[in-house]
Amino acid sequence: MTSSESDNAIPEAAAASAVREAGAHKTDVGSVFVSNYPPFSIWNPAALGELEKALDTAADAATPLGLYLHIPFCRKRCKFCYFKVFVDKNSDQIQRYLDALGQEIEILGERAAVRGRDLRFVYFGGGTPSYIAVKHLRGLVERVQAALPWDAVEEVTFECEPGTLTESKVAAYREIGVTRLSLGIENFNDEILRDNGRAHVTREIDRCLPWIRDQGFDQLNVDLIAGMVGETWESWRDTVQRTVDVDPDSVTIYQMELPYNTVYSRGILDGGSSPVADWETKRAWHLYAIDQLREAGYEVSSAYTMVKRRPGREHQSAFAYRDSLWHGADLLGTGVASFGHLAGVHYQNVSSWGEYLDKLDHGVLPLGRAYRPTPRERLTRELILQMKLGKLELDYFRDKFRVDPLETFGEAFERLKERQMLEVAGADEVRLTTRGLLQVDSLLPEFYDPQYREARYT
After folding, report:
1. CA within 20 to 30 Å of 164's CA: 113, 250, 376, 395, which one?
2. Are strands 219-226 and 391-393 parallel, antiparallel or unpaired?
3. How many CA atoms lie within 13 A of 170 on its CB side?
4. H helices within 65-133, ranges in order?
5. Tens of pLDDT along 199-252?
6. In sequence order, which residues have a C-beta less than 8 Å from that of residue 67 and are 6 or more positions away?
7. Any idea what DSSP says for residue 86?
8. Distance of alpha carbon 171 from its chain centroid, rounded?
9. Sequence-separated contacts (24+) of 351-359 with Cβ below 8 Å
10. 324 Cβ contact partners less than 8 Å away, ≥ 6 residues apart
11. How far apart are CA 303 and CA 436, in angstroms?
12. Contact 103, 360 (CB under 8 A)
């Protein structure tokens, strides 16, 4: 699906021109979004010994520590979803999972690498954290806070699906200390939402927004997806305008992709055509949203996020979870299939519901695979993740890693400079162009070590 030329008004034509390269590239099956390095596909169970060593060693107190809690329950599975989620669990099964999650955190809290450390941030992700009942949430939070106190936390993020919210749920989130509420709106067109398998519709968005405003969260983030199946210029313009009208503190815009384990991907692999707009069109839509949000007082915070800085309330534009992870923080990834990073070791929990519960029933951490990156790989990881901010402060890498990125990655920078994806501003900064920002994830493999450039990401 792409929009026809007759759909394009002048701003849309200009946006398309700004992102056009040699030709349109269809959205095919495969992961594009980069969240870690080296690729997950090389992590393996044999390296879990490295993680056990890390867990038994006191960590550097200067390294920030965060907690991610995977709440893997949803009303429906979206047709583009590739996360580990369940749509068939009853209240008793949910409680059993949350009991196991609490036990996992208690076990971690007793390990040397975690014991006594303050959390900088907490992130409830999914799935749909707002799916679970208040009684389930309160029990989990009480248990977590007893094991890992939140006294020094800077940010608590909670992901929500509009149709799962009630006024009492929103009030409970405020009471447990949520500071950043992230609302998965994705689109304001009911037909597009239904066609893509979303569980909510726009009246549910409109219903929950007053409850959120009344609670006075430090930050409201709204998620949008450019390129959902059925999108047109007209529907996208409307979604962007309605987002501006909501006036959230931040807006996160993703471009639709098709990892291997989605409903849409299976259709393509079975011989069907891609139902998603080509990359050129998605980037044009993304750029249009950026431009409209800029006119409404927002500024670019990363390749995906626009923020509105309100005088006297600068904390409303902060994102401790993102900035900490992209600068090498430790993350306790908890829950089924969750990813984490501790004391220089990447790891992932087991991905099976039964195995996750069984391990914790026996008092064993549900660890599935791990990888200890080399110093060069740790450097690469931070560099590519920070490129998503739209710029690199080169002295940060010189101070932390004792190398000059312009020398270590000189050829990659030069190739991207020749393609007009970035600019090197003297010896201090590398800055992405607009074109580079809109397709930053596809540029990052330029910095990979040769053995990883053809590796499947997941």
Report:
1. 250
2. unpaired
3. 22
4. 91-109
5. 999 999 999 999 999 999 999 999 999 999 999 999 999 999 999 999 999 999
6. 105, 119, 121, 122, 123, 144, 148, 331, 332, 334
7. B
8. 25
9. 351/84, 353/86, 353/97, 356/100, 357/96, 357/97, 357/100
10. 64, 66, 120, 121, 331
11. 9
12. yes
Q: Is 221 helix (H, G, I), strand (E, B) or coil?
A: strand
CB 97 within 8 A of CB 131: no
Nearest 10 degrees: Cα torsion 430, 433, 436, 438? 130
pLDDT tens, residue by residue, 378-411: 999 999 999 999 999 999 999 999 999 999 999 9
User: Distances from the Cα of 169 to the Cαs of 64, 160, 247, in angstroms?
Assistant: 30, 10, 22
Q: What is the DSSP string of 321-364?
A: HHHHHTTT-EEEEESTT-EEEETTEEEEE---HHHHHHHHHTT-
Q: Which two tokens stand for residue 200?
A: 């909510």
**Pick from 429, 442, 445: nearest CA to 390:** 429
Instruction: Count Cα neighbours of 270 within 13 Å in the Cβ-side half-sphere.
Output: 7
Alpha-carbon torsion 44, 45, 49, 52, what sign?
Answer: positive
The secondary structure element, H or E, covering residue 434 is helix 434-438
Token reading at 302: 């990363």
Give residues with Cβ within 8 angstroms of 37, minimum separation 6. 373, 377, 380, 381, 384, 385, 448, 452
Which helix (H) or strand (E) element contains residue 124?
strand 121-126
CA atoms within 13 A on the CB side of 211: 21
Other Cβ atoms within 10 Å of 14 Cβ, number: 14
8 Å CB contact between 164 and 208: no
* Closest listed residue to residue 33, CA positions, set 306, 250, 186, 255: 255
